[in-house]
C-alpha cells in the first residue's frame, strides 16, 4: 500500500481508502459476518482510511447501520491495527422511506454526531464531514456547529462533501476544513475542469475543486471513483482505448481508473466501495500502479479532462 499525507492533519493514510456504502445501502447487501470479513481484509491490505456516514442504511429506521458495522469490525482488531485506523463519517443527510433528504441544522448535526460516536464505539471521530449543503440552512449554522463539536473534543478534524469552490471559500470563515469529498471518476471529471468552465446549473458546482485542494493542502476524497455501484463494471467498456491500455498493463480498467485518479495529485484519495473481496483486492492494488506522464495525459484525453 502507498501512504500519503492527509491534508494538513499530520497523518499519513492509505492512498486507496475504502467506502463502506455498498455494505449497507441495498437489500442485497452482505450479512454482518460477510461485511466484517470484507472490512478486515481491507485492513490486512493496508487500508487505513474508511469512509462511512450515518445515512448509509436502507432507511431512517436503521440509521447508522454502516457505522455500526465499521465500529464493530474496528473494535475486533488488535490494538496496533485499531490505532492506525482513520474512520471518516458524515452527517447532514437523512433517509425517510429510503429517500435522501438534507438536514444541516445545528440541532440535527449535534444529535447525529453524538449518535455516530456511539455507533463507531469511539470517544472522538477522526474526521466528521458535512455531507451536503442544506439549502434551507445557512452554511454558517452547519459549520459553526461542527466547529463547536470539535472544540468539545468530539471531532478531531472537520471535512465537507459536495462543496464547490465558492462554498469552500465561505467554509474557511467558520472552521478549518482538512478535506473535501466530491464525485470524481472517468464518468464525472467536473472537479478537474477549470472553475471558469463551470456549469452553473450543477448543484453545487464542483468545477475547480481539485485544483483548489491541491493549492491549499486539503485532502480530496473521490466518491464513486468507479462510477458507482451500478456502473463500476463498465469503466473500460465505454472507452476502448482505456480498456486497451489496461490490457497492455495487465490490469483491470477499474484498477487503471483508480491509478489515474491518484495521478491527479498527491492530495487525492479514491474511496472505492466493494462487497466482494476480489474487487476490494483489485482496487487496493491500484496504489502500486505507477502511470507514466504520457499514460496520464492519454487517459485525461480519453476521459475528458
Ligand atoms: N459524499 C457523497 O455524497 C457520496 C456519494 C456516494 C458515495 N460516497 C462514498 O464513496 C464511496 C464509493 O462510492 P460507491 O461505493 O457508491 O461507488 P464506487 O466505489 O464507484 O463503486 C462501487 C462498486 O464497484 C464495484 N467494484 C469495486 N472495486 C472494483 C474493481 N476493482 N473491479 C470491478 N468492480 C469493482 C463494487 O462491486 P461489489 O460491491 O460487487 O464488490 C462496488 O459495488 C461510497 O462507498 C461512499 O463511502 C459518498
Question: What's this, in brief?
Answer:
The protein is of the alpha/beta class. It has one domain: TIM Barrel. Helices cover 37% and strands 16% of the residues.
Can you characterise this structure?
This protein is an alpha/beta fold and 305 residues long. It has a single domain, classed as NADP-dependent oxidoreductase domain (TIM Barrel). It contains 11 helices and 12 strands. An 8-stranded parallel sheet has the order 3-4-5-8-9-10-11-12. Strands 1-2 form a two-stranded antiparallel ribbon. The chain has a two-stranded antiparallel ribbon with strand order 6-7. β3, α1 and β4 form a beta-alpha-beta unit. α1 packs across α2, α1 runs parallel beside α10 and α4 packs across α5. The longest helix has 15 residues. The radius of gyration is 18 Å and the shape is globular. The mean pLDDT is 96. The structure holds NADP nicotinamide-adenine-dinucleotide phosphate. The site of NADP nicotinamide-adenine-dinucleotide phosphate has 28 residues, from α9 and α10.
Key traits:
single chain, 305 residues, alpha/beta, TIM Barrel, two-stranded antiparallel sheet, 11 helices, 12 strands, 16% strand, binds NADP nicotinamide-adenine-dinucleotide phosphate
List the helices and strands and how they pair.
Blueprint: E1 3-5, E2 12-14, E3 18-19, H1 32-44, E4 49-51, H2 65-75, H3 79-84, E5 86-91, E6 93-94, E7 101-102, H4 106-120, E8 125-130, H5 139-151, E9 155-161, H6 165-171, E10 177-183, H7 209-216, E11 219-223, H8 240-249, H9 253-262, E12 268-270, H10 277-284, H11 293-303
Parallel strand pairs: 3-4, 4-5, 5-8, 8-9, 9-10, 10-11, 11-12
Antiparallel strand pairs: 1-2, 6-7
Helix pairs in contact: 1-2, 1-10, 2-4, 4-5
The structure holds NADP nicotinamide-adenine-dinucleotide phosphate (NAP).
NADP nicotinamide-adenine-dinucleotide phosphate (NAP) is lined by residues 19-22, 51, 161-162, 181, 223-229, 232, 252, 254-255, 271-276, 279, 282-283.
Amino acid at each position: 500500500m502507498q501512504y500519503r499525507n492527509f491534508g494538513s492533519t499530520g497523518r499519513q493514510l492509505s492512498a486507496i481508502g475504502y467506502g463502506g456504502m455498498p455494505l449497507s445501502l441495498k437489500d442485497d447487501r452482505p450479512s454482518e459476518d460477510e461485511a466484517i470479513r470484507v472490512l478486515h481484509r481491507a485492513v490486512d491490505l493496508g487500508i487505513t482510511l474508511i469512509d462511512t456516514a450515518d445515512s448509509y442504511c436502507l432507511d431512517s429506521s436503521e440509521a447508522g447501520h454502516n457505522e455500526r458495522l465499521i465500529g464493530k469490525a474496528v473494535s475486533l482488531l488488535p490494538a496496533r491495527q485499531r490505532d492506525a485506523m482513520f474512520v471518516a463519517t458524515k452527517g447532514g443527510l437523512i433517509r425517510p422511506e429510503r429517500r435522501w433528504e438534507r438536514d444541516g441544522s445545528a440541532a440535527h448535526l449535534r444529535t447525529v454526531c453524538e449518535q455516530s460516536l456511539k455507533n463507531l464505539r469511539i470517544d472522538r471521530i477522526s474526521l466528521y464531514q458535512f455531507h451536503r449543503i442544506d439549502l434551507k440552512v445557512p452554511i454558517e449554522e452547519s459549520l459553526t456547529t461542527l466547529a463547536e463539536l470539535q472544540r468539545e473534543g468530539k471531532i478531531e478534524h472537520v471535512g465537507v462533501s459536495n462543496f464547490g469552490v465558492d462554498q469552500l471559500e465561505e467554509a474557511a470563515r467558520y472552521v478549518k476544513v482538512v478535506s473535501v469529498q466530491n464525485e470524481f471518476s472517468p464518468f464525472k471529471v467536473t472537479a478537474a475542469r477549470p472553475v471558469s468552465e463551470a456549469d452553473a446549473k450543477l448543484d453545487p458546482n464542483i468545477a475547480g475543486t481539485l485544483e483548489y485542494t491541491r493549492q491549499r493542502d486539503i485532502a480530496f476524497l473521490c466518491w464513486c471513483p468507479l462510477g458507482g455501484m451500478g456502473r463500476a463494471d463498465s469503466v473500460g467498456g465505454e472507452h476502448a482505448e482505456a480498456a486497451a491500455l489496461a490490457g497492455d498493463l495487465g490490469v483491470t480498467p477499474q484498477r487503471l481508473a483508480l491509478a489515474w485518479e491518484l495521478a491527479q495529485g498527491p492530495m487525492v484519495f479514491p474511496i472505492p466501495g466493494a462487497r466482494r473481496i476480489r474487487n476490494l483486492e483489485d482496487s487496493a492494488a491500484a496504489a502500486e500502479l505507477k502511470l507514466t506522464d504520457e499514460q496520464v495525459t492519454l487517459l485525461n484525453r480519453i476521459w475528458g479532462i
